Write a sequence for this structure.
């Protein structure tokens, strides 16, 4: 939490101002009982009405001033806290955007989302409370103690006894309640999990007639949670009465010892009344302060999660001196490439070597986990390899700027991702300044025009977040159009036809063939029928090249390839 | 001073933490936040109250405890004032050098003892009230949760398919949580606040009607401030919420699509968009915080004005001997406490509003129409053979959109029915009808000659085994997942089933073997391995009829071979409905159902359908266009 506060630097002066204003406001609050004491001890004792009125007027001015301070302080503290949230959020987002895919894999996308949204809100909210209450509490305590001592130093000893008592009482209750709250959270999560599984698996549960079993499981979790909840609430219920008793004992003690001092003529009644009020203000401040400490662990957990992300240095950075490629267009070379995912025991790819030329289609085939997607994700440098070299147009991808490298590539991922916005905007994602005609053309080739024109606003129809309002096949087609509009030197289709039905698949591939004539094309596929016509087929088996060649060559030379072909076609056609 | 007695700490509300902004930003943000309201407040309240019926006695005890606890704490400032007055009088006498004047310590000690007693009694009753309420509140929520769970078990699949899980979960979790904390805290708070408000006014009146008037005049002022500010802050909070929603959406999209953002080099644009949204959020956010933040100081200000007036007027009255000094002291305490129950009540009204909205959503769930009840004298098939017949079946998901009209099919025991078609929409429908997840709109489905509506649902479903692509595994060990097929299966039977499904080998290569726990989405197994597990489960269940899904692209070739073997073993001697992707399966099938957009467009044998030269022929030619391959393969 403290570490995050480095982002408060731009707000140094406003923060100092807030401190000053809150201090003034606390003083004004504390000064009121002092004035009241004067009314009692001077005004009432002497029966001096005009003195009373005069002091009353002063009190009004004091409270007015205090309120003004408080309002101005709130103004600044709101801007500081929300501004702080803005800074943290902005830094975090920009930082995450610089991450490579590896960092996304380690932290997980979902977690990064919560950290950027929920956790930043959490720390912002705590800063609001800190600025609003937490700095005023210690100031009020200190101010209160000073006033109490100035009013009557001897009696102030009562406070010395009571404050630790209060702190200890709070401490003990919190210590037993907080772990219970955590247990309760765990049990609540458990209950939610059972419920969630019941919803997701409703068909299985019913198909296997396990409804009663699920009910029993839910009931067990439910009862468990209820028992803990009752226990927790009963312990928490102790807190308030105990604090009441402590505070009230303080009142009685002050009154009793105060009486003795008054009897001895060492103190006046007004002072005693004021003193009682100070004592309450101090004890309340202490109470508030300890409540605040309940919130801190939560916020510091959030802060920790934010810091963790900020501390991750993106693995892939541009070289200090970046090279531009010159003459060649779309030549991709893998030179003895070995790559392991960080932390993995076995390399995902070993000693991969091949070369592609513009105008050629290179297909990559192999079983699940053979490393097909990994291979193509090395081309846009989503990951850095351990040994060997990936070269595009003769230059190692690590020596180019990422922006330059990626501007050469049209990437179509396995799982199509669209963004909220219109269809045209989604296609233009590939090329910002694409003309209407270019967008239309890309949609045509991608076989998307038919369904687009079926939508109410055509290319201007809106896509919901995550592309929720279009089908999987439509998403894939738009994501292909997005790559096409870019007219890149290199196309990467990472198993991108899987959600298309057969006819569309065939039509699309036919249209593509004419479109991408002078580009280098990579196609990752599971099905032999998709790759057969490629100029070059790379067969991967457990991260190694099992064979490279055309369909005909591989049928004779490559055992693994034949096995794949046989398993897919034999059953149907050989029979 | 005993103003401590009834203020509530901003207790953390367990369970609210995960929620989207929870009930408001922090304990003091409650005022001015927009509140959701119930449509039928009264009806919902009455219905919720019925859940308390079994706890009438406890609730009366809570009420009594709350009243006693509060009343005792209200009386104490007045009594404290008596001590001060005595002190003051004694001092004044001494001050005036009246002979024999002394402070009456016996009296003061007496008062302090009474006070100590009052404090202890008040604290005990406050605790007692919370203690009882914890039991009542949590048990009530327990009952409500169980009712929801029972209800969910009786709801038809139609309900689940038409609603997002998020919505159901949020009712069963967030709304329930809302009710739970309200019952625990706000209900008793409402009682004590009300008692306090009345009590304070009464006490103030007994001390001085004039001073009471002064305090009461500040009341409309504070109301005015609250209303004006709450109105403004609601707009800002709404703006903030909207800005936050848009910003969160952007973050989500950009992170999920990170690969695309990178691939197309759009990082800078994405950050620029974010900064814009972040600025909008800032503008709305600080305004919302500021406006809601000044409520406290302004209320404090109004309170202080009251304080000053009471001090001044009270002081003058003391000099006029119209009132005692201790009374002024007591009065100041009352005046300070006066606004508290009012703001609390205002808060509670909001909380109760949102609680009723929550309760209404839960009751909505509880009122959903249930499955058609089962026949009272259900037929029991002792040894099902697996004959399946559809007679003039018609079915539709949506009232006006007919999907299946007059469908007739018949499969004898042991026969295979292949289902082919471009999309998967059809198979879900088939499962839905066969398993009676949905009710058909016309015609009959017969199993072994018996209408399935004459069977108990559980008995019907036990006859079916399913091996589908969408995995249907749950978070638990592999053993538990296989044993899900049959309750009380022995270890030996489980292993035998796994062996028969060719799953035993890979299971034993896992670090914990049969005790390996599948995580929630079972990402620790490959797609193919998951399918082998579901086959093992079906083998263990030993059903008469099967519904199978042949493996497709996401399975690697070696596992695919295993799956294929296991499936053909499993299908032997059972009536099977197969979602087919392989030509061999289709050719061997007794009957092929060609489905498109969820309905059956053609049916017949492979040859018959090819001869028709319709949809099937078209599909066949495009799907297996690689026919030319066969020659090459054969070489």
């Amino acid at each position: 939490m403290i570490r995050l506060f480095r982002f408060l630097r731009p707000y140094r002066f406003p923060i100092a101002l807030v401190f000053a204003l809150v201090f003034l406001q606390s003083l004004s609050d504390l000064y009121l009982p002092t004035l009241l004491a004067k009314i009692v001890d001077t005004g009432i004792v002497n029966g001096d009405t005009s003195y009373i009125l005069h002091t009353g007027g002063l009190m009004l001015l004091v409270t007015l001033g205090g309120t003004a301070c408080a309002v101005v302080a709130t103004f600044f503290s709101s801007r500081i806290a929300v501004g702080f949230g803005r800074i943290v959020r902005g830094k975090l987002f920009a930082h995450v955007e610089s991450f490579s895919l590896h960092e996304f894999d380690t932290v997980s996308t979902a977690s990064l989302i919560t950290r950027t949204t929920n956790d930043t809100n959490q720390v912002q909210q705590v800063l609001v409370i800190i600025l609003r209450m937490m700095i005023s509490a210690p100031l009020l305590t200190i101010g209160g103690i000073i006033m109490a001592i100035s009013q009557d130093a001897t009696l102030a000893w009562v406070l010395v006894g009571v404050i630790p008592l209060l702190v200890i009482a709070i401490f003990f209750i919190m210590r037993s309640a907080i772990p219970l709250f955590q247990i309760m959270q765990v049990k609540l999560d458990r209950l939610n999990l059972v419920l969630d599984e019941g919803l997701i698996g409703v068909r299985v549960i019913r198909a296997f007639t396990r409804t009663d079993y699920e009910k029993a499981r839910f009931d067990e979790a439910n009862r468990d949670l209820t028992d803990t909840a009752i226990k927790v609430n009963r312990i928490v219920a102790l807190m308030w009465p105990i604090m009441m008793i402590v505070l009230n004992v303080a009142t009685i003690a002050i009154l009793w010892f105060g009486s003795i001092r008054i009897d001895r003529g060492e103190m006046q009644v007004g002072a005693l009344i004021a003193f009682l009020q100070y004592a309450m203000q101090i004890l309340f401040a202490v109470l508030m302060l300890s409540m605040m400490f309940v919130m801190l662990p939560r916020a510091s957990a959030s802060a920790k999660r934010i810091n963790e992300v900020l501390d991750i240095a993106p693995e892939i950075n541009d070289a200090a001196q970046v090279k531009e490629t010159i003459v060649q267009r779309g030549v991709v070379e893998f030179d003895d490439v070995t790559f392991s995912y960080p932390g993995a025991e076995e390399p995902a790819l070993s000693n991969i070597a091949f070369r592609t030329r513009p105008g050629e289609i290179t297909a990559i085939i192999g079983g699940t986990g053979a490393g097909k997607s990994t291979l193509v994700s090395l081309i846009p440098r989503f990951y850095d390899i351990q040994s060997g070299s990936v070269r595009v147009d003769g230059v190692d991808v690590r020596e180019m700027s990422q922006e330059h490298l990626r501007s050469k590539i049209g990437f179509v991922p396995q799982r199509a991702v669209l963004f909220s916005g219109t269809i045209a905007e989604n296609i233009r994602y590939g090329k910002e300044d694409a003309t209407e005609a270019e967008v239309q053309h890309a949609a045509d080739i991608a076989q998307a025009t038919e369904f687009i024109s079926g939508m109410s606003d055509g290319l201007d129809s809106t896509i919901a977040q995550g592309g929720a309002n279009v089908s999987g096949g439509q998403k894939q087609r738009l994501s292909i159009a997005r790559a096409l509009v870019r007219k890149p030197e290199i196309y990467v289709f990472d198993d991108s036809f899987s959600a298309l039905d057969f006819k569309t698949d065939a039509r699309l591939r036919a249209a593509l063939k004419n479109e991408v004539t002078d580009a280098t094309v990579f196609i990752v596929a599971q099905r032999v029928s998709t790759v057969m016509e490629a100029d070059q087929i790379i067969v991967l088996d457990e991260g190694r090249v099992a064979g490279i060649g055309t369909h005909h060559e591989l049928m004779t030379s490559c055992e693994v390839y034949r096995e794949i072909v046989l398993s897919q076609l034999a059953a149907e056609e050989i029979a | 001073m005993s103003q401590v007695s009834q203020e509530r700490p901003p207790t953390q509300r367990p369970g609210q933490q995960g929620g989207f902004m929870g009930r408001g930003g922090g304990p003091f943000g409650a005022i001015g936040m927009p509140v959701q309201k119930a449509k039928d407040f009264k009806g919902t309240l009455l219905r919720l109250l019925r859940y308390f019926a079994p706890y009438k006695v406890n609730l009366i005890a809570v009420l009594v405890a709350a009243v006693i606890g509060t009343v005792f704490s209200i009386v104490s400032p007045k009594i404290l004032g008596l001590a001060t007055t005595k002190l003051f009088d004694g001092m004044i006498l001494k001050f005036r050098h009246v002979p024999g004047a002394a402070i009456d310590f016996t009296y003061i000690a007496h008062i302090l003892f009474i006070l100590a007693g009052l404090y202890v009694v008040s604290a005990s009753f406050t605790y007692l009230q919370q203690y009882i309420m914890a039991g009542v509140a949590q048990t009530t929520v327990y009952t409500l949760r169980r009712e929801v769970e029972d209800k969910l078990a009786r709801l038809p699949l139609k309900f689940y398919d038409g609603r997002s899980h998020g919505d159901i979960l949020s009712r069963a979790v967030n709304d329930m949580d809302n009710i739970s904390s309200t019952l625990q805290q706000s209900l008793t708070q409402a009682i004590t606040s009300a008692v306090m408000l009345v009590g304070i006014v009464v006490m103030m009146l007994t001390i001085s009607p004039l001073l009471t008037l002064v305090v009461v005049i500040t009341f409309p002022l504070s109301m005015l401030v609250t209303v004006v500010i709450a109105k403004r802050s609601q707009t800002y909070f709404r703006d903030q919420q909207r800005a936050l929603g848009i910003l969160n959406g952007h973050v989500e999209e950009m992170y999920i699509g990170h690969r695309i953002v990178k691939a197309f080099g759009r990082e800078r644009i994405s950050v620029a968009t974010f900064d814009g949204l972040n600025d909008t959020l800032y503008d709305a956010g600080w305004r919302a915080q500021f406006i809601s933040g000044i409520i406290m100081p302004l209320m404090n200000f109004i309170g202080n004005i009251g304080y000053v007036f009471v001090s001044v007027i009270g002081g003058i009255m003391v000099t006029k001997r119209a009132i005692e000094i201790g009374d002024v002291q007591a009065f100041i305490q009352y005046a300070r406490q006066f606004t508290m129950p009012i703001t609390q009540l205002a808060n509670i009204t909001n909380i109760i509003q949102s609680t009723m909205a929550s309760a209404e959503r839960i009751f909505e769930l509880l009122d959903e129409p249930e499955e058609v009840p089962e026949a009272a004298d259900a037929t029991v098939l002792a040894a099902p053979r697996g004959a399946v017949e559809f007679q003039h079946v018609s079915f539709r998901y949506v009232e006006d959109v007919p999907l299946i009209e007059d469908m007739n099919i018949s499969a004898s025991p042991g026969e295979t029915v292949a289902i082919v078609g471009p999309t998967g929409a059809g198979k879900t429908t088939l499962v839905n009808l066969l398993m009676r997840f949905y009710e058909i709109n016309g015609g009959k489905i017969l199993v072994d000659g018996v209408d399935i509506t004459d069977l108990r649902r559980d008995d019907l479903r036990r006859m079916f085994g399913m091996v589908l692509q969408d995995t249907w595994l749950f978070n638990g060990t592999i053993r538990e997942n296989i044993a899900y097929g049959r309750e009380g299966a022995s270890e030996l039977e489980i292993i035998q089933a796994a062996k028969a499904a060719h799953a035993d080998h890979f299971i034993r290569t896992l670090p914990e073997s049969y005790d390996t726990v599948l995580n929630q989405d079972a990402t620790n197994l490959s797609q193919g391995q998951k399918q082998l597990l579901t086959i093992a489960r079906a083998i263990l269940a030993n059903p008469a009829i099967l519904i199978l899904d042949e493996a497709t692209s996401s399975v690697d070739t070696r596992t695919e071979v295993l799956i294929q073997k296991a499936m053909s073993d499993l299908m032997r001697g059972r009536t099977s409905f197969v979602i087919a992707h392989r030509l061999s399966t289709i050719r061997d099938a007794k009957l092929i159902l060609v489905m498109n957009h969820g309905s059956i467009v053609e049916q017949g044998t492979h040859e018959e359908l090819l001869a028709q030269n319709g949809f099937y022929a078209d599909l066949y030619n495009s799907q297996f266009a690689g026919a030319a391959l066969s020659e090459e393969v054969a070489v």
Q: What stands out?
A: The radius of gyration of chain B is 37 Å. Chain B touches chain A through 175 residues (CB under 8 Å).
